[in-house]
Each structure stands twice: as C-alpha cells, then as structure tokens.
Amino acid sequence: MNKQVLAGVSALVVTLSLAGWAVAQGAGGVTSLRGADVDEPQLLDQVPRQIEGRMVRNYRQQPPLIPHSATQYQIDLRTNQCLSCHDWTNAGERGAPTLSMTHYLDRDGNELDQVAGTRWFCNQCHVPQANTPELVGNDFQPSTNLR
C-alpha cells in the first residue's frame, strides 16, 4: 500500500513539474526596462556622472541624496563607513551633516547613543545623486509647485 501511495505522489509531482515548465515556456521571454534581452549587452552613449553639491529636496521628509561618491564605502552588519563622518560624534570636525535624531531612536521611540539597527543601512533610503534618464515615465511634481 505504501508503495502505491509513493508511486502516485511521484507521478503527481512529475506531472505538475512538467505542466509548470510548459506554462513558463508559453509565457514568453523575460523583458527588461532597457528594451533589450536580459543577457544582451547594451552600449551606453554616455555614462551618467554624479552631481557634486547638494540638491534641493522635492518633498518634506525626503531622504537627502548623497552628494559624493559612495562606491567604496563599506556597509555591512558590523561596519558602516558613512558614520565615520556623519555620526554626531564626528560630523562637527569633519564638516559633514549630522544624522537626523530619528536615526538614534529605536522602534519604540527610545533614544540611543548609537545609530539604531533600523537605520543602519544608509543606502536603503539615501542614493547618490545623478542626472540620469528615466527608465519609466514619471509626472511627479514637487509639493511646492502644487497649491
């Protein structure tokens, strides 16, 4: 009896796997926002350069953009090199903007002496600023233009 159940389950798994493969093949290829196949190299006319200096924010509470290269900054579970300049203990002598006090609050609103774990990975909110073409259409307008 156990052999019959095992054979039935095996046949069902094989049938469902083949059916899933057939559906996936019939769905068409993967497309990208670049308009080319995923594995197709695409040459760029010009590599966008990062804009130096601070840019104006488009809405209240927008995380500031990073006005300098951050490609060599290590951010992992143990190290956050952004804090070597932007932590409140170093910002004054480095001439860097200090982190907002919200970065020193835990999820219960308690003040901490170091950056909260929920704010540790800077690049989850802050990105380098660059003038790049849009991948998709965007009709966003800054809130100061709406009255």
UniProtKB/TrEMBL annotation:
Family indicated by similarity: Belongs to the NapB family.
InterPro entries reported for this sequence: Multihaem_cyt_sf (IPR036280), NapB (IPR005591)
Source taxon at top rank: Bacteria
Subcellular location: Periplasm
Segments passing through the bilayer: none
Entry keyword set: Electron transport, Heme, Iron, Metal-binding, Periplasm, Signal, Transport
Assembly behavior: Component of the periplasmic nitrate reductase NapAB complex composed of NapA and NapB.
Signal peptide: 1-24
Function text: Electron transfer subunit of the periplasmic nitrate reductase complex NapAB. Receives electrons from the membrane-anchored tetraheme c-type NapC protein and transfers these to NapA subunit, thus allowing electron flow between membrane and periplasm. Essential for periplasmic nitrate reduction with nitrate as the terminal electron acceptor.
One protein family per Pfam: NapB
PANTHER family for the chain: PERIPLASMIC NITRATE REDUCTASE, ELECTRON TRANSFER SUBUNIT (PTHR38604)
Matches recorded under SUPFAM superfamilies: Multiheme cytochromes
Source organism (scientific name): Meridianimarinicoccus marinus
Name the record gives this protein: Periplasmic nitrate reductase, electron transfer subunit
